[in-house]
Structures are given as structure tokens and as C-alpha cells.
Amino acid sequence: MTPFGAKLRALRAGRGETLKQMAAALEVSPAYLSALEHGKRGVPTWYMVQRIIAHFNVIWDEAEELQRLAEDSDPRVTVDTAGLDPVATELANLLARKISGLSTKSLEELIHRLRAVAAKDGA
Prior knowledge:
Low-confidence stretches: none
Helix content: 55-70%
CATH superfamily of the largest domain: lambda repressor-like DNA-binding domains
CATH architecture of the largest domain: Orthogonal Bundle
Radius of gyration: 17 Å
CATH class of the largest domain: Mainly Alpha
Structural class: mainly alpha
Largest sheet: none
Strand content: under 5%
Number of domains: 2
């Protein structure tokens, strides 16, 4: 499941809405919506995210969070390190090999550290 899919499912459950009901309201198939929730589809389009935002009537921060989660929810990421420092290639390969064995707590810690380092480096 992707971060966007988890948020979408939480919003839907919070409203007591079935997958079929939500799919009908968004004019998509229940199969598409299920695949979106489970991370078996790529990043939803901007238009689809806007329809979801309108469906749940969310505004400001929550709408921005949904958009950010959608952008960060590609379940099939490719990291192109061509032309970068060799250490970048090593990091990408190490993460690809080890990510499935990391706990949620460890993953959250890595995200926090990477964001802090990127902010410090101005990236």
C-alpha cells in the first residue's frame, strides 16, 4: 500500500463509505480504486486527486497533504544516478537491496534524516 492509498482508505473508512460507493461517486471502477488504494496503480493524475479532494470536501492543509502523498506514492520508483557521485549509486543500490527488511520505525527515521540533510544541503 502506498502513503496515498493508506490516506485514501482512511478517509473512506472514516466516512463509512464502501469502495463501490466511492468509485461510483468518482465515476471510476471499483477495481481502479482498489488498485489505487493497494499501490498497484501508479501515481494518480492531478485531476483524479482534485476529484478526491472535492469528494471528501477537504481544504487547505489536508488537500495539500493528499497532493503531496499522491506525488510520493509511485510504487515502482527508478533512481537514475548516472552522472552523480559514485556514493549516490552505492546509496541507491543499498536502499534497493535492504528496504524490504527495514521496520516501519527504521524507515521513518531514514525519511526524517534524509529530509533534514537535504534541507541542510539546500536540496
